[in-house]
Specification:
With 501 residues, the chain is mostly helical. It has 2 domains: 194 residues, Fumarase C, Chain B, domain 1; 260 residues, Fumarase/aspartase (Central domain) (Fumarase C, Chain A, domain 2), CATH 1.20.200.10. It has 19 helices and 9 strands. Helix 13 runs antiparallel to helix 14 and helix 15 runs antiparallel to helix 16. It is an enzyme of class 4 (lyase).
Length: 501
């Protein structure tokens, strides 16, 4: 059980909720803050104070006073009017993560939500109800208004949701799960939709997949080094001690660990004096990507434990502050950085693929073909990798440098953080396919060299690859092989510790 209090959620717990369907609940100690915060809102409505989003309209309508008797109507109108996202629905895992993160933000106790609405939000998550949320339409400031509005609709018995594999009206999904919709009180609609949970949910999943991808890249690169009779001197500790980036040293150590016991690797001068950069500079490039991942992890961990709505309620002082914590700039930058880093994993991988298949760059059969000339072998897999890498370059253009004013120029600078997160997620998906192509080519080349000559760790990796993709003995469509291996790499446990055991 994941216990939410708004301040202690970890990325590992988020992963448990996504991949293991671990259920969540609000920690007992959090309810006092939640209820006290709500009491402040009730007092404001009763006294008729002018507070943004409670007794006023939204955005440019912030100076329009709403009478107390219309406070509830204001919130349902907010949800309905802001639910105008378009495009393909977000994946269910992303929506589950949004539910978890929104519940955690509300559990922090600064949003003025009622206990009943927050409990229903958690119940929806635990019941497996997945609100249908179109993926496009957020500017990433004033929160992820459009996507979070679609998330909120089923809570009031509207919108659509997936439940037990069936697409249903929101009210029917609740009914089948034994739940009842709520009537939103003052401030609650705003509390549900004003936040960064769409961009952050997409970002967390992209980060978790990128973290795994980076480790796999080290292992697959080691197999490629053997297939190309690579030089191991460059991974020696002394070389990396004098440029003391911890991540660079870590990657070099991993590569050496994977190659321990190999009879295929070489030393300087044995075959050639130097390898190409795509082999020689793996620690420098992969290590720099690890630095990116460290930065992104830090920002995500802060964001998933932040209060990001507006206004914020401070029960100790009774103050309600209308600020800007909904602005997604920190996550926008982090997602752009993540996309750039992961794109480089794929970029250097594609260059290793080229060295594996190009007969002018190795002494292997041309394009690793079983019968060069009559059969094209792995020739076109490099084309696919090159196409994906080129697409990544376009996707890596930073979304965070853009801004379009909205709400009659009241909201005149936005982050585009959700676009940045979606682009980063697409880059991660593309990069898994590029790494899968490298793995397939490296496996083919290693078997041509002699699998018995591989290091024990890379021989185990070869076995994992061969459990999904058989050797190429005659030309066939490789499309399914690439897709299946990319999927297995995302989901299987191919840890370095396991491979080196």
């Amino acid at each position: 059980m994941i216990r939410l209090d708004g301040g202690s959620l970890t990325l590992e717990q988020v992963a448990q909720a996504i991949y293991s369907r671990e259920k969540a609940e609000i920690r007992d100690g959090a309810w006092g803050r939640i209820n006290t915060s709500r009491a402040v809102i009730d007092s404001i409505v009763k006294q008729g104070q002018k507070v943004y989003g409670v007794t006023t309209g939204f955005g440019k309508f912030s100076d329009t006073v709403i009478p107390p008797q219309d406070a509830e109507k204001l919130q349902i109108h907010l949800i309905r009017s802001h639910a105008c996202a378009v495009g393909e629905p977000l994946p269910p895992d992303t929506v589950r993560t949004m539910l978890l993160l929104r519940a955690n933000a509300l559990a922090k106790g600064y949003s003025g939500i009622t206990a009943g609405t927050l409990k229903l939000l958690v119940d929806v998550l635990n019941a497996g109800i997945v609100p249908l949320i179109p993926s496009q339409g957020s500017l990433g400031a004033s929160g992820d208004l459009a996507p979070l509005s679609h998330l909120a609709l089923p809570l009031v018995g509207e919108g659509e949701a997936l439940y037990q594999g069936e697409r249903l009206p929101g009210a029917e999904a609740l009914r089948r799960a034994g739940l009842k919709p709520v009537t939103l009180k003052a401030k609650e609609g705003l509390a549900l939709i004003n936040g960064t949970q769409a961009m952050t949910a997409i970002g967390v999943i992209a980060y978790l997949e990128a973290e795994r991808l980076a480790l796999l890249a080290d292992s697959i690169a080691a197999l490629t080094i053997e297939a190309l009779r690579g030089i191991t001197d460059v991974f020696a500790a002394d070389s990396h001690r004098v440029r003391p980036y911890p991540e660079q040293r870590l990657v070099a150590g991993r590569i050496l660990g994977m190659l321990k016991g190999s009879s295929l690797t070489t030393v300087q001068g044995e075959i050639r004096t130097q390898d190409a950069y795509s082999l020689r500079c793996i620690p420098q490039v992969h290590g720099a990507v690890q630095q990116v991942l460290g930065y992104v992890r830090e920002k995500l961990l802060i964001e998933i434990n932040s209060a990001t709505d507006n206004p914020l309620v401070f029960p100790d002082s009774g103050q309600v502050i209308s600020g800007g914590n909904f602005h997604g700039q920190p996550i926008a930058f982090a997602m752009d950085f993540l996309g750039i880093g992961v794109a480089e994993i794929a970029s250097i991988s594609e260059r290793r693929i080229e060295r594996l298949v190009n007969p002018q760059l190795n002494d292997l059969p041309a394009f690793l073909s079983p019968d060069p000339g009559l059969q094209s072998g792995m020739m076109i897999t490099q084309y696919t990798a090159a196409s994906l890498v080129s697409e990544n370059k376009t996707l890596a253009h930073p979304a965070s440098v853009d801004s379009i004013p909205s709400s009659a120029n009241q909201e005149d600078h936005v982050s585009m953080g959700t676009t940045a997160a979606r682009q980063a997620a697409a880059i991660v998906g593309n990069s898994y396919k590029v790494l899968a192509i490298e793995a397939i080519c490296a496996a083919q080349a290693a078997e041509i060299r002699g699998a018995e000559r591989l290091a024990p760790a890379t021989r185990r990796l070869l076995g994992r690859i061969r459990s999904v993709v058989p050797p190429l003995t005659e030309d066939r469509s490789m499309s399914g092989d690439i897709e299946r291996l990319a999927h297995r790499m995302k989901t299987a446990d191919w840890s370095l510790e396991d491979l080196q055991a």
